[in-house]
Model the fold of this input.
Amino acid sequence: MAKVKKVKKAAAKKAVKRAAAKKVVKLQPKKAAAKKNGAKRNGNGFIKPSTLPWGAAGKALDGVKILDFTHVQSGPTCTQLLGYMGADCIKIERPGTGDITRGQLRDVKGQDSLYFTMLNGNKRSITIDSKHPKGKEIIERLIKVCDVLVENFAPGAIERMGFTWEYVHKLNPRIIMASVKGFGPGPYEECKVYENIAQCAGGAASTTGFREGPPLVTGAQIGDSGTGLHLAFGIVTALYQRNRTGRGQRVLCAMQDGVLNLARVKLRDQQRLKHGPLTEYSQYGEGIPFGKAVPRAGNDSGGGQPAWLLKCKGWETDPDAYIYFITQAPVWSEICDLIGKPEWKTDPDYATPPARLPRLRHIFSTIEEWTMTKTKFEVMDICNPLDIPVGPILSMKEIAEEASLRKTGTVVEVDHPGRGKYLTVGNPVKMSDSITEVKRSPLLGEHTDQILKDVLGYSEKEVAEIKVSGAITPEAKGERAAAA
Ligand code: CAO
Done:
C-alpha cells in the first residue's frame, strides 16, 4: 500500500515538473524571433545555440520595449544603456519643452544641448502631456505594450500623474516599473536630489579631497550615471526573473544607496578604524592621529598598495602633466633601480612594505624627482614593461582625440541634423554577440506620429484628432484654463 502511494506521489511530481517545463517553454522567445536569431528548438523545446556568426544574431535586448519617462541625467543614462543593448526606448517628453536638459548648457544656439544629446542616443521621442486626459490614455496604452517603465521624477510626481505601481501593474502585470529617487524610505525620502547632493549624502564627498581642505565632489557622475547603471542592472535582472515568473516587479534605486555602493571601501575603513589607525593612509606615516570618521585621503591609494600622484615633465605649464604611481610590493626592486636608489632594496628602513609606511612622503618625493624628468607618456613606456602600475592623468582633450577609444567605439562621433557632428560616449560594455550601434538623440517629438500609429495602432483619423486635442502639443496660454 505504502509502495503504491509512493509511486502515485512520484507520478504526480513528474506531472508538475512536466507542466512547469511546458510553462518555461512558453516563456522562451517567440518562434519568429528565435528563427531570426538563428536559433532552433531542440526536442525538449529549449533553444539550441544560434548558428549565425557572432554579432549577426541581433542585440541582447532586441524586442524589449522601454517606456522611458526619464529626464535630466540619472534616468536617461539608464535607458541609453538599455538602448545600446538593443531595447526600443520610447521617451515621453513634455510638449513644447521636452526634457529640460535639451535647453541647458547650450553650446549651439537654438539646438539641443550636448547635455541632452549625449544622454539620449538610441531612443525615440514622443511628446505627451501626461496631465491631459487624452495624454493619459496614450500613456496607458503604452504601458500595456511595453516591458519596462523607467522614471526619475521627484518623489510623488509619477503617482500624482495617476501612475502608481499598483495601477501600472494592474494595466500590465508583466511590466517592470523602475525608478530612481534621491533617497530610499526614511527621513529624506521626499527630497529632490541632484548629483552632488547624492555624492555628499552617499558618503563619497566626506572622503574625497585633502585632509586639510573641505569635502570635495568628484567630476565622475557617480550619483546620476552611477545610479542609472545600478538601475539598468536591476531592470535586466527583473527581465530575467520575469522569464520564470511571468510577472513584472517594482525596481527602485536610491541615489544615496548607489553612491554608497561605489564608496563601500570607505565604509570598510570606517570599521577598521575601531581596531587602530589606517596604516596605508599617508596621514599615518606623518604621525597625524585619526579622528572618529574616515578622513579625506588626498591621492592616497584606496587599496593595500601605497600610491600617489606625481608631477611629470612640463607640470609647470600643463595642468595635466601628472602620473599616478603605485609602489606595488612585488616590483619594489624594479622601482628602486629605476629611480637610482638600489640601496633601498636591502635597507631595513625601505626593504619591506611595513618599513616603508612611515616614509611614504619621502619615498614619493624621491620617485617624483625621477618622474619630473620624463613626460607622463615616457613614464608609461618605461614602467609598463617592468610591470610597475602607473597611469597618466588624461585630460578630456586627450581622451577626445585618443585613437584607440575611437577604434573600440568608446568615443563615437555621431551626426545630428540640427547641430552637426558631436562626440558621445558609446557602450562601455563590449559584447561579442550584441554589437552596439550608437544612434543620434531624437529631436523633440520626432517619432510621435510613428509611435502613435505603429506601436499603438491609432488610425490616421485618430492621430489627427489627437493632434488637435492638446495632448501632444504645448498648451496654449490660458486655453486649457478657459476650457476648464
Ligand atoms: N506632461 C505633463 N507634466 C509633466 C510631464 C509631461 N510629459 N513630465 C513631467 N511633468 C511634470 C511632473 O508631473 C511634475 O509635476 P507636479 O510636480 O506638478 O506633479 C513636474 O513636471 C516636475 O517634475 P519633477 O519634480 O520631477 O522635476 P523638477 O525639475 O522639479 O525636479 C529633479 C528635478 C531631478 C530634482 C527631480 O525630478 C528628482 O528629484 N528626481 C529623482 C532623483 C533624480 O533622478 N535626480 C537626478 C537628476 S539628474 O541630476
About this structure: DSSP finds 21 helices and 13 strands in the chain. The CA atoms of residues 124 and 442 lie 6 Å apart.
